Amino acid sequence: MSSVTTLTSNDTIRLVLDTVEARNPHEPEFLQAVHEVLESIAPVLDTHPEFVDGGILERIVEPERQIMFRVPWVDDAGRLQVNRGYRIQFSSVLGPYKGGLRFHPSVNLSIIKFLGFEQIFKNALTGQGIGGAKGGSDFDPHGRSDAEIMRFCQSFMSELYRHLGEHTDVPAGDIGVGAREIGYLFGQYRKITNRHESGMFTGKGVQWGGAEVRTEATGYGAVFFVEEMLAVHGETLHGKRVGVSGSGNVAIYAIEKAHQLGATAVTASDSSGYVLDEAGIDVDLLRQIKEVERGRISEYAARRPGATYVEGERPWRVPVDVAVPSATQNELDADDARALVANGVRAVAEGANMPSTPEAVEVLQGAGVLFAPGKAANAGGVATSALEMSQNAARQRWNFDDSEAKLRGIMANVHHAAFTAAEKYGRPGDYVAGANCAGFERVAHAMLAQGVI
């Protein structure tokens, strides 16, 4: 018998964490994500010692493949520019790799690995048969012309295409990668491969293979998850104040769905500051400024009577019943969490990936706030991407209402999986532990069944 089998689950987890820390010493975001998952799954290992004997932990923390490459392109002034591209293919045990591409100057190996690791469990929770991956570049699309963005995307895809395919790896958008970028990326893939392989990219335009509700899915899904959490306690969103950070896809459509369900979303933000609109954020104006004009959030206050702009601050001091952080990782810290608690927040759902620091999560959970981690609350985007893949494979198109109904059903199932796993493993009401345990259990069973690969 292996000596590992005589260790406790916590001992096994500690040994694996020590190895991960030694192998990835300068990757704080990745280490944070690994700690958050592994430190909550000891009850699963106690119930399934075969996962320890099968080396599931040792394998699941190591990506199946890490791709890093040079992206040379020429700007409008004729100058050569060079960026770095990434694709981390973490796990394909449940299906083809699936996860977005992020174009942002903050992108580095640690961030892409953290996002890819999270994606394993998020995708498992959807029940859609998709693996986990993430990719992107430190390219900043802000201030770049359409022609520059096209040239960058074409160069990026000229390397990445060889690692993609509808049965291999299916990217989507993320921060800095919207409809424009997806169009350029897909076009280059089609040109190079001589295949109109619709299912190899999701988030496409509805007119050329995209799914209805995909644009709205992550924001809508986060609000649907809040609705499910509140329903457990006999509450609804109707009449509640909602605070949202960010002003991209996730934030815009979280605000829209909150309004549709009778709540009032009063904040939105970007890297320069936030706006407060007590009458409720005007979604059409916000969309015009951020999606069409690609302007700053301060312009919202300048054009919306009664709205105020607060420069250089985050919106978490504003009293709200529900908070949906939807900007970027680690944007909500312990001080922010204490401010939310002091102002009576009832629920927090992560619309972005890991936007709350571990200390913030501890404050929120310690105060009895309903807290939904990103791998559960923001799973709506990737779930709808999987629906887009299904439609592409069948050469079908579902209408908006049908697609939204499917999304709502998936989010109810994700909530049920996290809620029941938390109860099963002795952490009732702890959606962090529940989501981690449920997602890990699904992946671990599949890894065990498929052998040591």
Automatic annotation (TrEMBL):
Q: Which family does it belong to?
A: Belongs to the Glu/Leu/Phe/Val dehydrogenases family.
Q: Which organism is it from?
A: Microbacterium helvum
The signal peptide here is none
- What are the UniProt keywords, alphabetically? Oxidoreductase
Q: Which SMART domains match?
A: ELFV_dehydrog (SM00839)
| InterPro entries for this protein | Aminoacid_DH-like_N_sf (IPR046346), Glu/Leu/Phe/Val/Trp_DH (IPR006095), Glu/Leu/Phe/Val/Trp_DH_C (IPR006096), Glu/Leu/Phe/Val/Trp_DH_dimer (IPR006097), Glu_DH (IPR014362), Glu_Leu_Phe_Val_DH (IPR050724), NAD(P)-bd_dom_sf (IPR036291), NAD_bind_Glu_DH (IPR033922)
| Domain Glutamate/phenylalanine/leucine/valine/L-tryptophan dehydrogenase C-terminal: residue ranges | 211-451
The protein's name in its UniProt record: Glutamate dehydrogenase
**Magnesium: present as a keyword of the record?**
no
NCBIfam families (UniProt xref): PRK09414.1 (NF006929)
Species lineage, top-down? Bacteria, Bacillati, Actinomycetota, Actinomycetes, Micrococcales
Q: Name one Pfam family in it.
A: ELFV_dehydrog
Q: Is Oxidoreductase set as a keyword in this record?
A: yes
Matching entries from SUPFAM superfamilies are given as: Aminoacid dehydrogenase-like, N-terminal domain, NAD(P)-binding Rossmann-fold domains
State whether it acts alone or in a complex, and with which partners, per the record.
Answer: Homohexamer.
Q: Which GO terms describe its molecular function?
A: glutamate dehydrogenase (NADP+) activity
